[in-house]
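Aim 2 progress. For Stage 0 sporulation protein A homolog, the working sequence is reproduced below.
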Amino acid sequence: MNNHLKKVLVVDDEIKILEVVKSFLESKGFTVFVAENGRQALAIFERENLSLVLLDLMLPDLSGEEICVEIRKKSRVPIIMLTAKIEESDLLTGLNIGADDYITKPFSLKELYARIEAVLRRSSDDLVPLYNKTSFNHGDLEVDFESHTVKKNRVEINLTPHEFKLLAALIKYPNRVFTREDLIKVAFGDEFEGYDRAVDSHIKNLRQKIESDPRNPVYILTIFGVGYKFGGAQNEA
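Predicted structure tokens for this construct:
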């Protein structure tokens, strides 16, 4: 992986972790910024064009979850959460509010680098801002990620929780082609119970609700032999 010009923000209130991770990532070619609290982190985020954020959940001022939500209002920059929490509900909360992955403390630098490589590989080089309210195709489709509401031609439509999570996952990575297995992991994490083919049924129902012509979709595209991708053109709502 070519790390030239990639900027990483490491957020943690443990100085030793900041020093070790910063030194390690710099040895891998990254430009590294560090923050000991949430306010410093958000200031650096606003100032720098970051490629990745390593974000501790337990900080002295703002929580990692709060910082993640603030970043996701403006950017899809990949976020890996660093956490001592081991409760599944805590980890799922982080993924549901926009984190791309998590790693539990204590962790090895080798494991951390493997996670970073995987997240950067999955991420688009052209990171598009993700607003709380986002519209596509000149307002034909509107998605409010905060209230979990969707409108088609300005009329609110009813999506099931599974349908909304699938749509949100596809929108988050507009240039990524998902296999069924990948889509399940990104949309649901470990909470999904059922066969991967169940995704096809959810996609079919979702198309019936958001596509003007479900037989010729413009939002949820089938990539034959692989899976699905999102095809809408984004505009800020």
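The radius of gyration is 18 Å. This observation will guide construct design in the next reporting period.
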